[in-house]
Specification:
Helix content: 40-55%
Strand content: 5-15%
Number of strands: 16
Radius of gyration: 31 Å
Largest sheet: 6 strands, mixed
Structural class: alpha/beta
Shape: elongated
Distance between the termini: 66 Å
Length: 585
């Protein structure tokens, strides 16, 4: 069974290989083995091998035959488990500079084992019971031996009952091993800090086989001060300054405003659909660029092309003057076969819309994975820096929690510090708040603001208009795979030149200030006036300025803004005046 499983892993990888010859060979092998009886395969090996000069004992021939047969079935089981792991996991690993084999070993297989183990356990038991077929090539296995004993003493019931008990004992042992392994890889099992002295197999596959020590539990007297976040939220104050941490990692970068990320005539298509059409963009060192635009305009694709998670169709992209994963041959850019070292060298941090944390690793293990496995940092150094980063975003007491134990905002903050752990020279954010509740948006945006204060070069895809106004140095508006216009935040948000930009901003504003369909309590004129005032605040104008120009009390405008932060994009919550004051509907 062990040999068949090992061969099955090889067959599964060949079956999934991007090369047609390897994939077709593996498929042909699986088709042939699964389509013929194992009895016929054993007889063929027993008779065919001596004909070509390979003579083996019957027991060796049986082991080889069962292993080759099992490899076809195990290969499909393993392939199904690998395919069950979300592609987002491999994208996140690739963005950290992890190569395909390292990703398979550390990220994919540990998660795939949850789907693989039950089927492999059943298969192992079937193979064990099928070993009775080995008697046809004179292997003296348990069933054959039982028949020989019965032929001597004629005690059918006693002999075959004993044989059945032996089979049941071995299958029970296999089931027990399966149970233990499933417990080890189950996300529902209690997770504790992983000891440095765990088994080599546990270190190899990133799940443990030894008993961990008791977890560290924060004491009740441990100070956890609080700080106010924009929008009225409250979060734990960080005793360690994220600006200092990130500033230390970017200190070696020249502070001049020279282009750091350059895109020249970038084209990308998926089939017949052109996603990017001639993108030209330059991002200076230390600059914060916000990319806005409707869905499907190619914003996320552009970020993935920068870190070479997707390949270019035409054009070129350079980071600090170098191509990431490309080489120029006869004047034409060609992608390298081994892109992972290039990504690791470029040190591009990427934060995804859906977090993409490694589901089988704790928050601290997520952060330490790339520094230790890709960049070769000592694990003690990586853990110390990881704890500093978690503390800086108020999550030190969640270091040993799996991602599914964390809220959306906490997961996204862990994803940000995971990207920061590789000491990135540029950070890419792909709509980091779109999957969050409004109350959690402020937590994530506060962390991004700290990175901007530290001088980190950043490209942020977002629809958060107020954030873009306050933090970005430049806004780039994209539509239909092209850059429609770009400029300073005030220029783009308040005085857009292009009709397409004005249309998008008006639609966003309409979504933000739209009120629920309720019984009318305000006149149409008052509703329109209030919506216009809220729109000006949401576009980044100072509340005091809007209040002074409109005559509306600033406190009331603040309440409207707070209701928006609580209600999010579903619309600003309605308010009504009944003569006794302002109250929320």
């Amino acid at each position: 069974m062990a040999g068949g499983t090992a061969l099955g892993l090889v067959v599964a990888l060949l079956r999934m290989a991007p090369y047609r010859a390897l994939s077709a060979t593996a498929w042909l092998y699986i088709w042939l083995v699964r389509g013929t009886p194992v009895l016929l395969q054993l007889v063929f090996l027993f008779d065919a091998l001596p004909a070509v000069g390979i003579v083996m004992p019957p027991i060796t021939t049986a082991i080889l035959g069962f292993s080759l047969n099992e490899a076809a079935f195990s290969g499909e089981i393993i392939r199904g488990g690998i395919l069950s792991v979300s592609r987002n996991q491999t994208l996140a690993a690739a963005s950290l500079g992890m190569g395909p084999l390292l990703t398979l070993r550390r990220i994919v297989l540990p998660q795939a084992m949850r789907a693989i183990l039950p089927a492999l356990g059943n298969n192992a038991i079937s193979v064990l019971k099928g070993t009775s077929l080995a008697s046809v090539i004179a292997v003296n296995e348990l069933t054959l031996r039982s028949q020989q004993i019965v032929a001597q003493n004629f005690r059918f019931f006693a002999v075959f009952t004993a044989a059945g008990i032996m089979y049941l004992t071995v299958t029970t042992l296999i089931a027990g091993v399966q149970y233990v392994l499933e417990r080890r890889v189950s996300p529902d099992a209690e997770r504790r800090p992983r000891p440095f002295s765990e088994s080599a197999l546990g270190r190899f596959f990133s799940f443990r086989f030894s008993l961990p020590p008791a977890p560290r539990v924060p004491t009740p007297t441990e100070p956890r001060p609080e700080r106010r976040l924009p929008g009225g939220g409250v979060a734990r104050a960080a005793s360690i300054d994220l600006v200092r941490l990130v500033g230390a990692s970017t200190r070696g970068i020249s502070p001049d405003r020279t282009p750091f990320v350059v895109c020249r005539d970038v084209w990308k298509s998926y089939g017949h659909r052109e996603v990017l059409r001639g993108i030209d963009l330059a991002v200076n060192r230390g600059e914060v660029v916000t990319i806005m635009g409707p869905s499907g305009s190619g914003k996320s694709t552009l970020l993935r092309l920068i870190t070479h998670l997707e390949t270019l169709d035409r054009g070129e992209i350079t980071v600090d003057g170098r191509h990431v994963g490309y080489t120029r041959i006869a004047g034409v850019l060609r992608p390298l076969r081994n892109v992972a070292p290039e990504r690791a060298t470029a040190r591009i941090g990427m934060v995804f819309q859906q977090f993409n944390l490694f589901e089988h690793l704790t928050a601290l293990e997520n952060i330490c994975e790339a520094p230790v496995r890709v960049h070769g940092e000592p694990i003690e150094v990586a853990r110390g820096r990881g704890m500093e980063l978690l503390t800086s975003v108020g999550l030190a007491h969640h270091a040993d929690h799996l991602p599914f134990r964390l809220s959306g905002g906490q997961q996204q903050r862990v994803a940000i510090v995971r990207a920061l752990a590789i000491s990135p020279r540029v950070m890419l954010f792909d709509e980091p708040t779109s999957a969050l509740d409004p109350e959690l948006v402020a937590e994530v945006l506060a962390v991004i603001r700290q990175l901007a204060e530290a001088g980190m070069t950043m490209l942020v895809v977002t629809h958060e208009v107020r954030f873009a106004r306050e933090v970005a140095d430049r806004i780039v508006f994209m539509a239909d795979g092209r850059i429609v216009e770009e400029g300073a935040p005030r220029e783009i948000l308040e005085h857009p030149r292009e009709p397409r930009t004005r249309q998008f901003l008006n639609l966003v504003a309409r979504d933000l200030v739209a009120t629920p369909t309720l019984a009318p309590v305000l006149s149409d004129a008052e509703t329109a006036r209030r919506s216009e005032l809220v729109l000006r605040v949401l576009r980044g104008q100072a509340v005091d300025t809007v209040a002074r120009e409109s005559g509306v009390p600033a406190a009331e405008l603040e309440r409207w803004h707070r209701w928006f932060m609580e209600g999010g994009r579903d619309g600003l919550r309605a308010a009504e005046h009944d003569g006794s004051g302002t109250r929320e509907r």
